[in-house]
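Something for you to look into today, if you have time. What I am after is a single protein written out in full by you. I want to see for myself how the chain folds. Could you add the entry underneath, on a fresh line?
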Amino acid sequence: MLRINNIKVSLSETDYAKVISTQLNVPKRMIKNVKLLKRSIDARRSNVHFNCSFIFEVDQEERLLNRHKKILSLYEPYHYDYPVKNNKKVTIVGSGPAGLFCAYVLSQIGEDVHLIERGKKVEERVKDVDALFKDGTINPESNISYGEGGAGTFSDGKLTTGTKNKRIRYILETFVKHGAPEEILYESLPHIGTDRLREVLISMRKDILEKGGKISFETKFTNYYEEDGKHYVEVESKGKKEVLETDDLVLAIGHSARDTYEMLSKKLIMIPKAFAVGVRIEQKQEKINEIQYKSAAHHPALKAAPYKLAVQTSKKRGVYTFCMCPGGVVVPSSEEEGLLCVNGMSYYARDKENANSAVLVNVTPDDFGHDVLDGVRFQKELEKKAYALGGGQLKAPVQKVEDYMNNVASVELGNIIPSYKPGYTLANINEVFPSFINENLKEGFTLMNKRMPGFIDEDTVITAVESRSSAPVRITRDKQMHSNVEWIYPIGEGAGYAGGIMSSAVDGILCAEQICKQ
Protein backbone atom coordinates (compact mmCIF):
# COMPACT_ATOMS: atom_id res chain seq x y z
CA MET A 1 0.00 0.00 0.00
CA LEU A 2 1.02 3.60 -0.56
CA ARG A 3 0.68 6.59 1.70
CA ILE A 4 -0.05 10.11 0.52
CA ASN A 5 0.27 13.01 2.98
CA ASN A 6 -1.13 16.51 3.49
CA ILE A 7 -3.79 16.60 0.80
CA LYS A 8 -6.19 19.54 0.89
CA VAL A 9 -9.79 18.28 0.95
CA SER A 10 -12.91 20.47 0.92
CA LEU A 11 -15.31 20.11 3.84
CA SER A 12 -18.03 18.61 1.63
CA GLU A 13 -15.84 16.13 -0.28
CA THR A 14 -16.20 12.46 0.63
CA ASP A 15 -14.98 10.80 -2.57
CA TYR A 16 -11.40 10.28 -1.44
CA ALA A 17 -10.43 8.14 -4.46
CA LYS A 18 -11.32 11.10 -6.65
CA VAL A 19 -9.21 13.43 -4.50
CA ILE A 20 -6.17 11.15 -4.74
CA SER A 21 -6.56 10.52 -8.47
CA THR A 22 -6.73 14.25 -9.12
CA GLN A 23 -3.63 14.85 -7.01
CA LEU A 24 -1.68 12.13 -8.84
CA ASN A 25 -3.21 12.83 -12.28
CA VAL A 26 -4.30 9.23 -12.82
CA PRO A 27 -7.73 7.70 -13.55
CA LYS A 28 -9.90 7.28 -10.48
CA ARG A 29 -10.44 3.58 -11.28
CA MET A 30 -6.77 2.93 -10.47
CA ILE A 31 -7.21 4.03 -6.84
CA LYS A 32 -8.51 1.20 -4.66
CA ASN A 33 -9.19 0.47 -0.99
CA VAL A 34 -8.69 4.03 0.20
CA LYS A 35 -8.46 4.53 3.97
CA LEU A 36 -8.25 7.81 5.85
CA LEU A 37 -5.09 7.82 7.94
CA LYS A 38 -4.99 11.36 9.38
CA ARG A 39 -7.32 14.35 9.26
CA SER A 40 -6.98 17.84 10.66
CA ILE A 41 -8.88 21.07 10.17
CA ASP A 42 -7.08 24.02 8.60
CA ALA A 43 -8.97 27.14 9.65
CA ARG A 44 -6.09 29.62 9.41
CA ARG A 45 -7.69 31.45 6.49
CA SER A 46 -11.19 32.05 5.20
CA ASN A 47 -11.18 28.85 3.11
CA VAL A 48 -11.58 26.32 5.92
CA HIS A 49 -10.72 22.79 4.77
CA PHE A 50 -9.35 19.43 5.87
CA ASN A 51 -5.73 18.37 5.55
CA CYS A 52 -5.71 14.61 5.04
CA SER A 53 -3.34 11.69 4.71
CA PHE A 54 -4.52 8.46 3.09
CA ILE A 55 -3.35 4.94 2.41
CA PHE A 56 -4.50 3.16 -0.74
CA GLU A 57 -3.77 0.39 -3.21
CA VAL A 58 -2.96 1.00 -6.86
CA ASP A 59 -1.81 -0.96 -9.89
CA GLN A 60 1.76 -0.26 -10.97
CA GLU A 61 2.62 0.84 -7.45
CA GLU A 62 6.39 1.15 -8.00
CA ARG A 63 5.97 3.24 -11.13
CA LEU A 64 3.62 5.67 -9.38
CA LEU A 65 5.91 5.85 -6.35
CA ASN A 66 8.89 6.80 -8.52
CA ARG A 67 6.85 9.46 -10.29
CA HIS A 68 5.65 11.15 -7.06
CA LYS A 69 8.50 10.68 -4.60
CA LYS A 70 7.76 13.94 -2.79
CA ILE A 71 4.24 13.07 -1.72
CA LEU A 72 4.09 9.24 -1.83
CA SER A 73 5.74 6.63 0.37
CA LEU A 74 5.32 2.96 1.14
CA TYR A 75 2.96 2.38 4.05
CA GLU A 76 4.17 0.22 6.91
CA PRO A 77 1.43 -0.56 9.45
CA TYR A 78 2.34 -0.35 13.12
CA HIS A 79 2.55 -3.52 15.15
CA TYR A 80 3.06 -3.60 18.92
CA ASP A 81 5.46 -6.30 20.11
CA TYR A 82 4.37 -7.53 23.51
CA PRO A 83 7.10 -8.11 26.11
CA VAL A 84 8.00 -11.66 27.11
CA LYS A 85 6.32 -13.11 30.19
CA ASN A 86 8.65 -13.67 33.14
CA ASN A 87 6.24 -15.21 35.67
CA LYS A 88 6.20 -12.36 38.16
CA LYS A 89 3.41 -11.52 40.56
CA VAL A 90 2.60 -7.83 40.01
CA THR A 91 0.33 -5.66 42.16
CA ILE A 92 -0.86 -2.40 40.58
CA VAL A 93 -2.42 0.38 42.66
CA GLY A 94 -4.78 2.62 40.70
CA SER A 95 -6.93 1.95 37.62
CA GLY A 96 -6.40 5.25 35.80
CA PRO A 97 -4.80 5.15 32.33
CA ALA A 98 -1.31 4.32 33.66
CA GLY A 99 -2.41 1.47 35.93
CA LEU A 100 -5.01 0.22 33.47
CA PHE A 101 -2.61 -0.11 30.53
CA CYS A 102 0.13 -1.58 32.70
CA ALA A 103 -2.35 -4.24 33.85
CA TYR A 104 -3.76 -4.71 30.34
CA VAL A 105 -0.38 -5.38 28.71
CA LEU A 106 0.72 -7.74 31.48
CA SER A 107 -2.58 -9.62 31.33
CA GLN A 108 -2.28 -10.10 27.56
CA ILE A 109 0.94 -12.11 28.04
CA GLY A 110 -0.42 -14.08 30.99
CA GLU A 111 1.50 -12.39 33.79
CA ASP A 112 0.04 -12.75 37.30
CA VAL A 113 -1.39 -9.25 37.73
CA HIS A 114 -3.65 -7.85 40.47
CA LEU A 115 -5.14 -4.38 39.91
CA ILE A 116 -6.30 -2.58 43.07
CA GLU A 117 -8.68 0.39 42.93
CA ARG A 118 -9.92 2.32 45.98
CA GLY A 119 -13.05 3.48 44.16
CA LYS A 120 -15.91 1.57 42.57
CA LYS A 121 -16.31 -0.03 39.16
CA VAL A 122 -17.58 2.49 36.62
CA GLU A 123 -21.23 1.34 36.56
CA GLU A 124 -21.57 2.01 40.30
CA ARG A 125 -19.32 5.05 40.21
CA VAL A 126 -21.70 6.76 37.75
CA LYS A 127 -24.50 6.59 40.33
CA ASP A 128 -22.33 8.28 42.97
CA VAL A 129 -21.29 11.00 40.52
CA ASP A 130 -24.95 11.59 39.54
CA ALA A 131 -25.73 12.13 43.24
CA LEU A 132 -22.77 14.51 43.45
CA PHE A 133 -24.17 16.58 40.57
CA LYS A 134 -27.69 16.51 41.99
CA ASP A 135 -27.19 17.63 45.58
CA GLY A 136 -23.46 17.91 46.31
CA THR A 137 -23.25 14.59 48.18
CA ILE A 138 -19.63 13.39 48.16
CA ASN A 139 -18.71 9.75 48.49
CA PRO A 140 -15.06 10.08 49.62
CA GLU A 141 -14.09 6.84 47.86
CA SER A 142 -16.26 7.07 44.72
CA ASN A 143 -16.33 10.39 42.90
CA ILE A 144 -14.78 12.19 39.94
CA SER A 145 -11.27 11.62 41.31
CA TYR A 146 -11.55 8.03 42.58
CA GLY A 147 -12.88 4.99 40.77
CA GLU A 148 -12.40 2.86 37.67
CA GLY A 149 -10.58 4.76 34.94
CA GLY A 150 -9.32 7.48 37.26
CA ALA A 151 -10.14 11.18 36.94
CA GLY A 152 -10.14 10.89 33.13
CA THR A 153 -13.36 8.86 33.17
CA PHE A 154 -15.35 12.02 33.86
CA SER A 155 -13.55 14.34 31.46
CA ASP A 156 -13.62 15.03 27.74
CA GLY A 157 -11.83 11.75 27.08
CA LYS A 158 -9.23 13.78 25.22
CA LEU A 159 -6.60 11.66 23.46
CA THR A 160 -4.17 14.38 22.41
CA THR A 161 -0.66 14.54 23.81
CA GLY A 162 2.67 16.19 23.18
CA THR A 163 4.31 12.82 23.81
CA LYS A 164 5.91 11.34 20.69
CA ASN A 165 5.84 7.60 21.19
CA LYS A 166 5.04 4.75 18.81
CA ARG A 167 2.92 3.08 21.51
CA ILE A 168 0.26 5.76 21.08
CA ARG A 169 -1.04 3.86 18.06
CA TYR A 170 -1.39 0.72 20.18
CA ILE A 171 -3.37 2.66 22.80
CA LEU A 172 -5.76 4.06 20.19
CA GLU A 173 -6.20 0.65 18.55
CA THR A 174 -6.90 -0.90 21.96
CA PHE A 175 -9.57 1.70 22.67
CA VAL A 176 -11.21 1.03 19.29
CA LYS A 177 -11.04 -2.72 19.89
CA HIS A 178 -13.01 -2.14 23.09
CA GLY A 179 -15.70 0.12 21.66
CA ALA A 180 -14.26 3.58 21.05
CA PRO A 181 -15.25 5.29 17.77
CA GLU A 182 -12.90 4.38 14.90
CA GLU A 183 -12.40 8.05 14.07
CA ILE A 184 -9.92 8.38 16.96
CA LEU A 185 -7.44 6.53 14.73
CA TYR A 186 -7.34 9.37 12.19
CA GLU A 187 -8.57 12.60 13.77
CA SER A 188 -5.72 14.95 14.73
CA LEU A 189 -7.58 15.94 17.92
CA PRO A 190 -9.24 12.67 18.93
CA HIS A 191 -11.57 12.32 21.89
CA ILE A 192 -13.88 9.61 23.21
CA GLY A 193 -16.18 11.53 25.53
CA THR A 194 -17.06 10.48 29.05
CA ASP A 195 -20.06 8.39 27.92
CA ARG A 196 -18.16 6.28 25.37
CA LEU A 197 -15.10 6.00 27.62
CA ARG A 198 -17.18 4.27 30.30
CA GLU A 199 -18.11 1.52 27.82
CA VAL A 200 -14.46 1.08 26.85
CA LEU A 201 -13.44 0.66 30.49
CA ILE A 202 -15.97 -2.11 31.07
CA SER A 203 -14.77 -3.98 27.99
CA MET A 204 -11.08 -3.65 28.96
CA ARG A 205 -11.88 -4.84 32.47
CA LYS A 206 -13.60 -7.95 31.10
CA ASP A 207 -10.60 -8.63 28.86
CA ILE A 208 -8.14 -8.40 31.78
CA LEU A 209 -10.29 -10.79 33.82
CA GLU A 210 -10.70 -13.24 30.93
CA LYS A 211 -6.90 -13.32 30.54
CA GLY A 212 -6.52 -14.36 34.20
CA GLY A 213 -5.89 -10.97 35.79
CA LYS A 214 -7.51 -9.99 39.07
CA ILE A 215 -9.20 -6.65 39.85
CA SER A 216 -10.28 -5.53 43.32
CA PHE A 217 -12.51 -2.47 43.57
CA GLU A 218 -13.29 -0.57 46.79
CA THR A 219 -9.86 -1.71 48.00
CA LYS A 220 -7.53 0.90 49.42
CA PHE A 221 -3.74 0.58 49.43
CA THR A 222 -2.53 1.50 52.92
CA ASN A 223 1.10 0.34 53.24
CA TYR A 224 3.87 -1.89 51.98
CA TYR A 225 6.84 -3.60 53.60
CA GLU A 226 9.60 -6.15 53.03
CA GLU A 227 10.27 -9.12 55.31
CA ASP A 228 12.67 -12.04 54.92
CA GLY A 229 13.31 -11.05 51.33
CA LYS A 230 9.60 -11.10 50.44
CA HIS A 231 7.44 -8.12 49.46
CA TYR A 232 4.04 -7.37 50.97
CA VAL A 233 1.22 -4.91 50.26
CA GLU A 234 -1.37 -3.96 52.86
CA VAL A 235 -4.89 -3.14 51.68
CA GLU A 236 -8.23 -2.43 53.29
CA SER A 237 -11.64 -3.26 51.83
CA LYS A 238 -14.94 -2.50 53.54
CA GLY A 239 -13.29 -2.42 56.95
CA LYS A 240 -11.30 -5.62 56.47
CA LYS A 241 -7.52 -5.54 56.26
CA GLU A 242 -5.52 -7.92 54.08
CA VAL A 243 -1.85 -8.51 53.28
CA LEU A 244 -0.89 -9.47 49.72
CA GLU A 245 2.42 -10.98 48.75
CA THR A 246 3.90 -9.64 45.52
CA ASP A 247 7.09 -9.48 43.48
CA ASP A 248 6.58 -5.94 42.17
CA LEU A 249 4.38 -3.05 43.24
CA VAL A 250 3.28 -0.46 40.67
CA LEU A 251 2.08 2.88 42.07
CA ALA A 252 -0.34 4.49 39.60
CA ILE A 253 -2.09 6.41 42.35
CA GLY A 254 -3.36 9.52 40.52
CA HIS A 255 -2.79 13.17 41.40
CA SER A 256 -5.53 13.38 44.06
CA ALA A 257 -4.48 10.51 46.35
CA ARG A 258 -3.36 12.89 49.08
CA ASP A 259 -3.59 10.41 51.95
CA THR A 260 -1.43 8.01 49.93
CA TYR A 261 1.10 10.80 49.28
CA GLU A 262 1.24 11.35 53.04
CA MET A 263 2.02 7.69 53.72
CA LEU A 264 4.55 7.38 50.89
CA SER A 265 6.39 10.57 51.82
CA LYS A 266 7.66 8.80 54.94
CA LYS A 267 8.99 5.83 52.94
CA LEU A 268 9.94 6.83 49.38
CA ILE A 269 12.04 9.68 48.03
CA MET A 270 9.65 12.38 46.83
CA ILE A 271 10.17 15.99 45.77
CA PRO A 272 7.77 18.90 45.26
CA LYS A 273 7.15 19.86 41.65
CA ALA A 274 5.65 22.75 39.72
CA PHE A 275 2.00 22.61 38.65
CA ALA A 276 -0.68 25.16 37.79
CA VAL A 277 -3.86 26.58 39.30
CA GLY A 278 -6.64 28.82 38.04
CA VAL A 279 -10.27 28.80 36.97
CA ARG A 280 -12.68 27.32 34.44
CA ILE A 281 -13.81 29.80 31.80
CA GLU A 282 -17.10 29.39 29.89
CA GLN A 283 -18.18 30.90 26.59
CA LYS A 284 -21.01 30.12 24.19
CA GLN A 285 -19.86 27.23 22.00
CA GLU A 286 -21.56 28.85 19.02
CA LYS A 287 -19.36 31.91 19.42
CA ILE A 288 -16.18 29.80 19.67
CA ASN A 289 -17.24 28.03 16.45
CA GLU A 290 -17.62 31.39 14.71
CA ILE A 291 -14.22 32.61 15.94
CA GLN A 292 -12.43 29.43 14.94
CA TYR A 293 -14.27 28.40 11.75
CA LYS A 294 -15.41 31.81 10.45
CA SER A 295 -17.96 31.53 7.63
CA ALA A 296 -17.79 27.71 7.83
CA ALA A 297 -18.95 27.69 11.45
CA HIS A 298 -22.23 25.95 10.66
CA HIS A 299 -20.93 23.45 8.13
CA PRO A 300 -22.26 19.96 9.00
CA ALA A 301 -18.81 18.40 8.55
CA LEU A 302 -17.42 20.46 11.43
CA LYS A 303 -18.07 19.62 15.05
CA ALA A 304 -17.77 21.85 18.13
CA ALA A 305 -14.55 23.86 17.82
CA PRO A 306 -11.72 23.61 20.34
CA TYR A 307 -9.09 26.23 21.16
CA LYS A 308 -5.68 26.25 22.80
CA LEU A 309 -3.88 29.35 24.07
CA ALA A 310 -0.64 29.98 25.94
CA VAL A 311 0.92 33.33 26.87
CA GLN A 312 3.67 34.67 29.08
CA THR A 313 2.97 37.65 31.30
CA SER A 314 5.25 40.62 31.94
CA LYS A 315 6.31 38.86 35.14
CA LYS A 316 7.55 35.89 33.05
CA ARG A 317 4.76 33.70 34.36
CA GLY A 318 3.12 31.14 32.05
CA VAL A 319 -0.68 31.32 31.68
CA TYR A 320 -2.40 28.78 29.44
CA THR A 321 -5.63 26.98 28.64
CA PHE A 322 -5.86 23.33 29.64
CA CYS A 323 -8.28 20.46 29.05
CA MET A 324 -10.58 22.54 26.85
CA CYS A 325 -14.01 20.89 26.61
CA PRO A 326 -16.02 21.86 23.51
CA GLY A 327 -19.75 21.62 24.13
CA GLY A 328 -19.10 20.46 27.66
CA VAL A 329 -19.87 21.18 31.31
CA VAL A 330 -17.98 22.19 34.44
CA VAL A 331 -18.04 19.57 37.20
CA PRO A 332 -16.90 19.21 40.84
CA SER A 333 -13.82 17.00 41.24
CA SER A 334 -13.59 17.14 45.03
CA GLU A 335 -13.28 13.99 47.10
CA GLU A 336 -13.31 15.54 50.57
CA GLU A 337 -15.92 17.56 52.47
CA GLY A 338 -15.07 21.23 52.88
CA LEU A 339 -12.97 21.40 49.70
CA LEU A 340 -14.03 22.52 46.24
CA CYS A 341 -12.15 22.03 42.99
CA VAL A 342 -13.61 21.93 39.50
CA ASN A 343 -12.85 20.26 36.20
CA GLY A 344 -14.34 20.03 32.70
CA MET A 345 -16.26 17.17 31.09
CA SER A 346 -17.73 16.50 27.63
CA TYR A 347 -19.88 13.76 26.20
CA TYR A 348 -18.98 12.22 22.85
CA ALA A 349 -21.48 14.46 21.00
CA ARG A 350 -20.01 17.66 22.51
CA ASP A 351 -23.44 19.20 22.03
CA LYS A 352 -23.92 21.26 25.20
CA GLU A 353 -24.46 25.01 24.93
CA ASN A 354 -21.20 26.18 26.50
CA ALA A 355 -17.52 25.67 25.81
CA ASN A 356 -15.27 25.51 28.86
CA SER A 357 -11.57 25.37 29.55
CA ALA A 358 -9.20 25.72 32.45
CA VAL A 359 -7.12 28.89 32.39
CA LEU A 360 -4.12 28.25 34.60
CA VAL A 361 -1.14 30.06 36.08
CA ASN A 362 2.12 28.17 36.62
CA VAL A 363 3.25 27.87 40.23
CA THR A 364 6.55 26.47 41.56
CA PRO A 365 7.97 25.42 44.93
CA ASP A 366 9.32 28.98 45.26
CA ASP A 367 5.66 30.07 45.47
CA PHE A 368 4.29 27.47 47.88
CA GLY A 369 7.27 25.93 49.72
CA HIS A 370 9.92 23.28 49.30
CA ASP A 371 8.64 20.68 51.76
CA VAL A 372 7.50 17.64 49.79
CA LEU A 373 3.80 18.14 50.63
CA ASP A 374 3.71 21.96 50.53
CA GLY A 375 2.11 21.83 47.06
CA VAL A 376 -0.72 19.70 48.42
CA ARG A 377 -1.23 22.16 51.27
CA PHE A 378 -1.28 25.05 48.80
CA GLN A 379 -3.97 23.30 46.72
CA LYS A 380 -6.08 22.55 49.80
CA GLU A 381 -5.93 26.16 50.97
CA LEU A 382 -7.31 27.37 47.63
CA GLU A 383 -9.99 24.66 47.68
CA LYS A 384 -11.08 25.62 51.22
CA LYS A 385 -11.46 29.25 50.16
CA ALA A 386 -13.43 28.29 47.06
CA TYR A 387 -15.73 26.08 49.12
CA ALA A 388 -16.38 28.85 51.64
CA LEU A 389 -16.91 31.48 48.92
CA GLY A 390 -19.47 29.24 47.23
CA GLY A 391 -21.44 29.01 50.46
CA GLY A 392 -21.10 25.27 51.10
CA GLN A 393 -22.82 22.16 49.71
CA LEU A 394 -20.29 22.19 46.86
CA LYS A 395 -21.80 25.29 45.28
CA ALA A 396 -19.08 26.95 43.25
CA PRO A 397 -18.14 30.65 43.19
CA VAL A 398 -18.88 32.11 39.74
CA GLN A 399 -18.03 35.55 38.38
CA LYS A 400 -18.15 37.42 35.10
CA VAL A 401 -14.62 37.96 33.81
CA GLU A 402 -15.08 41.72 33.51
CA ASP A 403 -16.05 41.86 37.23
CA TYR A 404 -13.06 39.70 38.15
CA MET A 405 -10.80 42.09 36.26
CA ASN A 406 -12.29 45.01 38.24
CA ASN A 407 -12.18 43.13 41.58
CA VAL A 408 -15.91 43.44 42.26
CA ALA A 409 -18.38 40.66 43.00
CA SER A 410 -20.80 39.82 40.20
CA VAL A 411 -24.42 40.57 41.02
CA GLU A 412 -26.00 39.34 37.78
CA LEU A 413 -25.13 37.23 34.74
CA GLY A 414 -25.43 37.93 31.03
CA ASN A 415 -26.48 35.38 28.44
CA ILE A 416 -24.02 32.68 29.56
CA ILE A 417 -25.49 30.41 32.22
CA PRO A 418 -22.82 28.48 34.15
CA SER A 419 -23.06 24.74 33.51
CA TYR A 420 -21.68 23.73 36.90
CA LYS A 421 -23.73 21.38 39.05
CA PRO A 422 -24.86 21.13 41.87
CA GLY A 423 -25.15 24.93 41.73
CA TYR A 424 -23.24 28.18 41.97
CA THR A 425 -22.99 31.43 43.91
CA LEU A 426 -22.13 34.79 42.37
CA ALA A 427 -19.00 36.02 44.15
CA ASN A 428 -15.62 37.72 43.82
CA ILE A 429 -13.06 35.07 42.86
CA ASN A 430 -10.20 37.46 43.66
CA GLU A 431 -10.74 36.32 47.26
CA VAL A 432 -9.67 32.75 46.43
CA PHE A 433 -6.16 33.46 45.14
CA PRO A 434 -3.03 35.16 46.43
CA SER A 435 -2.27 38.43 44.66
CA PHE A 436 0.42 37.04 42.35
CA ILE A 437 -2.04 34.57 40.80
CA ASN A 438 -4.74 37.21 40.38
CA GLU A 439 -2.28 39.61 38.74
CA ASN A 440 -0.96 37.05 36.29
CA LEU A 441 -4.35 35.53 35.54
CA LYS A 442 -5.80 38.95 34.70
CA GLU A 443 -2.89 39.82 32.44
CA GLY A 444 -3.20 36.38 30.89
CA PHE A 445 -6.87 36.98 30.07
CA THR A 446 -5.98 40.27 28.38
CA LEU A 447 -3.20 38.69 26.32
CA MET A 448 -5.40 35.75 25.31
CA ASN A 449 -8.18 38.05 24.18
CA LYS A 450 -5.69 39.89 21.96
CA ARG A 451 -4.45 36.58 20.57
CA MET A 452 -8.00 35.32 19.97
CA PRO A 453 -10.37 38.34 19.73
CA GLY A 454 -13.74 37.46 21.24
CA PHE A 455 -12.29 34.89 23.65
CA ILE A 456 -13.70 37.13 26.41
CA ASP A 457 -16.73 39.41 26.19
CA GLU A 458 -19.09 41.07 28.65
CA ASP A 459 -20.90 37.77 29.35
CA THR A 460 -17.95 35.39 29.78
CA VAL A 461 -17.90 33.68 33.19
CA ILE A 462 -15.32 31.89 35.32
CA THR A 463 -15.73 29.25 38.03
CA ALA A 464 -13.24 28.56 40.84
CA VAL A 465 -11.09 26.76 41.58
CA GLU A 466 -9.15 24.52 39.16
CA SER A 467 -6.27 23.31 41.31
CA ARG A 468 -5.39 19.79 40.18
CA SER A 469 -4.10 20.13 36.65
CA SER A 470 -1.20 17.85 37.57
CA ALA A 471 0.50 16.28 40.57
CA PRO A 472 2.16 18.63 43.08
CA VAL A 473 4.85 16.01 43.82
CA ARG A 474 7.17 13.64 41.98
CA ILE A 475 8.14 10.21 43.30
CA THR A 476 11.69 9.83 42.08
CA ARG A 477 12.62 6.88 39.86
CA ASP A 478 15.61 5.65 37.86
CA LYS A 479 15.91 4.75 34.16
CA GLN A 480 14.40 1.33 34.86
CA MET A 481 11.43 3.12 36.49
CA HIS A 482 12.29 1.86 40.01
CA SER A 483 11.80 4.14 42.98
CA ASN A 484 14.47 4.11 45.69
CA VAL A 485 12.88 0.77 46.63
CA GLU A 486 13.85 -1.53 43.75
CA TRP A 487 10.60 -3.49 43.56
CA ILE A 488 8.35 -0.41 43.52
CA TYR A 489 7.52 1.40 40.25
CA PRO A 490 5.91 4.89 40.50
CA ILE A 491 4.13 5.75 37.23
CA GLY A 492 1.65 8.07 35.58
CA GLU A 493 0.29 11.44 36.51
CA GLY A 494 0.14 10.82 40.25
CA ALA A 495 3.84 9.99 40.36
CA GLY A 496 4.66 13.17 38.43
CA TYR A 497 5.61 11.60 35.07
CA ALA A 498 2.61 12.21 32.82
CA GLY A 499 -0.30 14.53 32.15
CA GLY A 500 -3.51 13.28 30.58
CA ILE A 501 -4.84 9.97 29.32
CA MET A 502 -2.34 9.25 26.55
CA SER A 503 0.96 10.08 28.25
CA SER A 504 -0.20 8.22 31.35
CA ALA A 505 -1.14 5.16 29.30
CA VAL A 506 2.26 5.23 27.56
CA ASP A 507 3.95 5.35 30.98
CA GLY A 508 1.93 2.32 32.07
CA ILE A 509 2.97 0.33 29.00
CA LEU A 510 6.63 1.27 29.48
CA CYS A 511 6.37 0.07 33.09
CA ALA A 512 4.93 -3.27 31.99
CA GLU A 513 7.84 -3.68 29.58
CA GLN A 514 10.39 -2.82 32.28
CA ILE A 515 8.88 -5.33 34.69
CA CYS A 516 9.20 -8.06 32.07
CA LYS A 517 12.86 -7.18 31.50
CA GLN A 518 13.83 -7.73 35.14
